[in-house]
Each structure stands twice: as C-alpha cells, then as structure tokens.
Design goal:
The protein is mostly beta strands. The protein has one domain. 0% of the residues lie in helices and 36% in strands. A hairpin with a 5-residue loop joins strand 3 and strand 4. It is elongated, with a radius of gyration of 18 Å. The chain starts with a strand and ends with a strand. The model has no long low-confidence stretch (mean pLDDT 79).
C-alpha cells in the first residue's frame, strides 16, 4: 500500500482535483482511491482522558492522539 497526504486546503473537490505529496507519477481513477473507512494508527500524546455526560445522557469523550507514520 502506498500512502499519500493531501497537502492543500484549497483542493477542488468539485472537479475531482486534490493536491497530494508525494506527487503521483501516473494518473489514477477514482476507483483506485480509498476515501471511506481509511485505516490509520494513532498513539496517545499524554495520559489525560476526559469525559462528560450531557443533559441527554450522551457521553462526550476526549483524548489527545497523534498519527503514527
């Protein structure tokens, strides 16, 4: 699997154009791109984990992570 990163916020999704690094050597079709359920690995950046219970009994859970490359 080859990994690429989108590097511009101004990519034009309406035309199907995104800017990535490293640049591609050849064009790919949209069927070759995974954009849903993308697997990634993260690691905790500290030991702090917080949660709250809202008025509708829904939990809000927060932790700080960084992607492992």
């Amino acid at each position: 699997m080859i990994k690429f990163m989108v590097v511009e916020d101004q990519s034009d999704i309406s035309t199907g154009t995104i800017t990535i690094e490293p640049p591609l050597r050849t064009a790919v079709s949209s069927t070759d791109i995974t954009y849903d359920d993308v697997p990634f690995t993260v690691s905790l950046t500290n030991d702090i984990q917080e949660y709250n219970i809202g008025t509708t009994n829904l939990y809000a859970y927060e932790l700080d992570v960084v992607e492992v490359l």
